[in-house]
Design a protein that fits this description.
2 domains; Rossmann fold; 446 residues; single chain; five-stranded parallel β-sheet; alpha/beta
Length: 446
């Protein structure tokens, strides 16, 4: 089970810039109110909480077909539809394409150079494509889907549609219409599950099964952390503590930046996934917490100076791993060089853990708050725990801020302006807005 250590958030450890036990105890009433919203499912978008109980048989069936038929598995998606699968791939099957099949490619942008290079590496005749969009109308995903659709139709003729899997809304949307018309394989993203909360739906589980990871292990991990964190008492609920501590650090100390430092290369994409979840869910109505991803030990040499002596606006979140699953001993060489010989006999995991703990201590000595999540090992079970932990924490924290943690009105405006520029029917006014903006923008240039 993952563990939360928040000692370095408390004033008795880091001094006056920490939080007092009394502040947390006084906050219990607010926590109980929010707990009631979650327990009673007062928001339909809390449907992600029920994902650990889903039936995975159809996911497993389609994944088996992909493994048998294809040498390549190409995911088309953006935001949560790509960041979740990426986090799973890098954590559970690092360097996958060098050693395993089918090879996995995730196209999560509309950069033509990237797609060109992907298409130069794969044989479309031996490729399965998973197009992921809850709405079925995401412009970026739709564009790449249309390109692949046309290309594979040309190559495979009548059989081409069998190589597509649509992961989308179970009832409506453009993709659902195409599924019905063209006979595509499809998997549903359950109603109420928002894209950035969907990694434990077929969005992430299909990729897991394709690369040989048991999706049920992910769901068991999620179910176990949910069971552990069902208590309304703050001191017994690590999910509520995580959200409460970061919320109070904002309100009491003005710390609005949350740095997530994963001390494992394979967890860096998890930090990136967390950043979308945290930023898009909480950043609205002029409130919110700004996340940014980092990786230890690397970023001790690029960012730690800022964290320790820069503005007093950050909380550092460490993800520490107990067992890397492998270790390498540092050999007993250069015995005559004191500056190197002290490392001999130790292992790389020892050094990694020492670096992480040293960074914790250095921040605490400087009165800079930090919090540590310890993961026993990087496997499907604990990845399921991490995903569900952060999703529940995000929803909980959004309710503390009294905002809707499931919508994204700022993103929608950008989408609408894009629709106008690209000529989508019904968005003519947005096109005019763009034209007026361009006139103003053209005046100030050097």
């Amino acid at each position: 089970m993952i563990e939360l250590n928040f000692s370095n958030m408390m004033e008795e450890v880091i001094g006056v810039r920490g939080l007092s036990k009394r502040i947390l105890e006084d906050f219990q009433g607010k926590v109980i109110d929010v707990h009631g919203q979650i327990r009673d499912r007062l928001w339909p978008e809390l449907a992600f909480i029920d994902l650990p109980s889903q039936d995975t048989s159809e996911i497993k069936k389609i994944a088996q077909e992909v493994r048998e038929e294809s040498e390549n598995f190409l995911i088309l998606g953006i935001g949560g539809s790509a960041l979740g699968p990426k986090a799973l791939l890098e954590a559970l099957s690092p360097f996958h394409n060098f050693t395993k099949s089918p090879k996995v490619f995730i196209y999560d942008n509309v950069d033509p150079r990237t797609l060109k290079h992907i298409l130069s590496l794969i044989d479309l005749k031996k490729t399965s494509v998973n197009v992921i969009s809850k709405s079925g109308s995401t412009a970026e995903t739709a564009a790449s889907f249309m390109i692949l659709w046309d290309g594979m139709r040309e190559l495979l003729k009548r059989r081409f549609s069998k190589r597509f899997i649509a992961t989308t809304d179970p009832e409506k949307g453009n993709l659902r219409t195409i599924v019905g018309r063209e006979g595509l394989k499809s998997l549903p993203i359950p109603r109420g599950v928002v894209g950035r909360y969907s990694v434990l739906s077929p969005v992430g589980l299909l990729l897991a099964e394709v690369i040989g990871i048991d999706s049920d292990e992910l769901l068991i991990g999620a179910k176990d952390i949910q069971k552990r964190c069902s208590n309304s008492e703050l001191w017994k609920n690590p999910i509520y503590l995580f959200g409460t501590l970061l919320y109070l650090m904002d309100k009491k100390e003005g710390r609005t930046i949350n740095v997530m430092v994963a001390y494992a290369d394979g967890l860096k994409p998890l930090s990136e996934w967390f950043c979308q979840l945290w930023a898009e869910s909480l950043g609205k109505q002029e409130v919110g917490l700004t996340p940014y991803p980092s990786v230890g030990v690397t970023d001790q040499h690029s960012q730690l100076q800022l964290w320790i002596e820069g503005p007093q606006d950050k909380v550092v979140i460490f993800i520490r791993t107990n067992d890397y699953g492998v270790d390498i001993k540092i050999p007993n060489v250069f015995k005559d060089m004191e500056g190197l010989s002290y490392l001999s006999g130790h292992t790389l995991s020892e050094l990694m853990k020492a670096e992480e703990e040293a960074t914790e201590i250095a921040l605490a000595k400087a009165g800079r708050p930090n919090i540590t999540i310890t993961v026993p090992k990087i496997d499907a079970y604990h990845m399921g725990q991490l995903f569900h932990f952060f999703e529940l924490s995000t929803a909980f924290t959004g309710f503390l801020y009294e905002i809707n943690p499931f919508n994204q009105p700022g993103v929608e405006e950008g989408k609408n302006l894009t629709y106008g520029m690209m000529g989508k029917k019904g968005f003519e006014k947005k096109r005019k807005e763009v034209e007026e903006y361009r006139k103003k923008r053209s005046r100030w240039r050097v």
